[in-house]
Design a protein that fits this description.
Helices cover 30% and strands 20% of the residues.
Length: 171
């Protein structure tokens, strides 16, 4: 499919996005010879990496968080922090994080406030900030969270500096 698409667009380089990589059949390899799910993921990622190198494309893979991390009750805005994604909350994290070069998470506290807090007055004036955190990087330090103002209507994220957050909090 990738070769066909490269021919259709008349160029080799492209970025391929796999939404829910774990749902692709090749990532569900488990067989009677003793290959477990984690080993199947490793084999599939190795094949994907080799294909990307050979065909000259980059890829981005989206993975799901464990739903268990969203269990529980929250009573105020401080409780929302417990929903912030971590390495261990990525489904099959050990297998995927062992092979990926970068791992990023997105966290929007306002989303959780709207979903879990009954009292809208607690979050109605809350800015919709998306925190992007680098959980893994093959070469370099793992960074702290970058912040973006999220606009759901246009699916746009506007970078924020720390001083932007302070100014807007004062208004």
């Amino acid at each position: 499919d990738i070769i066909k698409f490269q021919q259709e667009i008349g160029q080799q380089y492209m970025v391929v996005v796999f939404d829910l990589l774990s749902m692709i059949k090749d990532f569900m390899i488990v067989d009677k010879s003793g290959v477990n799910f984690a080993q199947g993921i490793e084999v599939a990622i190795n094949v994907l990496n080799a294909m990307a190198k050979e065909l000259g494309f980059h890829y981005i893979a989206v993975l799901q968080m464990n739903r268990k991390s969203e269990d529980g009750r929250i009573d105020d805005l401080k409780d929302i922090e417990k929903f912030r994604p971590s390495r261990s909350q990525i489904k099959n994290s050990g297998a995927f994080l062992e092979r990926v070069r970068y791992a990023l998470t997105l966290f929007r506290p306002k989303y959780y406030a709207e979903a879990y807090l009954e009292d809208a007055s607690l979050y109605e004036d809350m800015q919709d900030i998306c925190h992007v955190s680098l959980l893994k990087q093959n070469q370099g330090k793992v960074s702290s969270s970058l912040r973006y103002l999220f606009d759901g209507e246009t699916m746009n994220m506007i970078p924020l500096e720390d001083e932007d957050l302070n100014k807007e909090g004062e208004e």
